[in-house]
Amino acid sequence: MNIKDMSLDQKIGQMLMIGFHSKKFDNHIKEMLYEHYIGNVILFSRNIGSKDEIIELTEDIQKNAMEVLGIPALISIDQEGGMVTRISNGATFLPGNMAIAATNDPKNAYIIGEIMGKELGALGINMNLAPVLDVNNNPLNPVIGVRSYGEDPKNVAEFGTNYIRALQEQGVVATAKHFPGHGDTKIDSHVDLPLVLHSMDRLEEIELYPFKAAIDSGVEAIMTAHIIFKALEHQGRPATLSHNIITGLLRNRLGFNGIVITDCMEMSAIAKYFGTANAAVMAVKAGADMILVSHTREKQIDAARAIKQAVLKGDIPIENIDMSVQRILSIKRKYSIGNYSFNGAKGLNDILGNRDHIEKAKEVSLESVTVVKDDKCLLPIKTKNILVISPEPVLMTGVEDCNTEMDSFAQALTDELGGIYSIMDINPNGDYIKNISVKAKDKELIVVGTYNANLNEGQVKLINELYKCNQNIIVVALRNPYDISKFKEIPTYICTYEYTPLSIASLIRVLAGYKMSLGRAPVTIEER
Question: Does the active-site annotation cover 190?
Answer without folding.
Answer: yes
